Amino acid sequence: MSKLKKLMLVGIIGSVTLAGSAQAACWAPAAVDAAHVRDLQSRLMVAALRCAKSEHDVLPHYNRFVRDKKPLLKLGNGILRGHFAQGRNKRQAIKHYDRYAVSLANKYGAGSGDLSECKAMKDLANSAADTDSNITSLVNISQFHGLTPNLPGGRCGIIIASTEN
Predict the structure, then answer these.
(1) Which of 17-21, 145-149, 155-159 has the highest mean pLDDT?
(2) What is the reported pTM?
(3) What span, in angstroms and rounded, lies between the C-alpha atoms of 29 and 83?
């Protein structure tokens, strides 16, 4: 095999490998929804800790949210774990999931400690606890309140089927 053919073969294999890893890193719609739910939970958890000594204590409302929505939170975390498991061994997947979950909490925990948002967070926790028990309802609350989870690798492309030839 000529040197040129070998170089072309290496280039083709390399581009296929990179395309495969990029595709595995993108976020499918279910993973995006799970990220919204996890982001909402992280936002409320940080508020519960920050606002514990304020006149608008978020902790009991956050605890009710977690208790009432536990099956949905577990489902969402399972979807996220599955997302981070793509193309990784179990140890790497857990490491990437944990890093992601911590980054969400750190995003909100890095604030100034300002307690002016505690009433809004208490209301958000109540809304989240009171909403229907489905992922879509929690995603809607997350989006309504402007929460935007980080999606490293971006959303997966959408393929639209057509019946026309």
Answers:
(1) 145-149
(2) 0.79
(3) 11
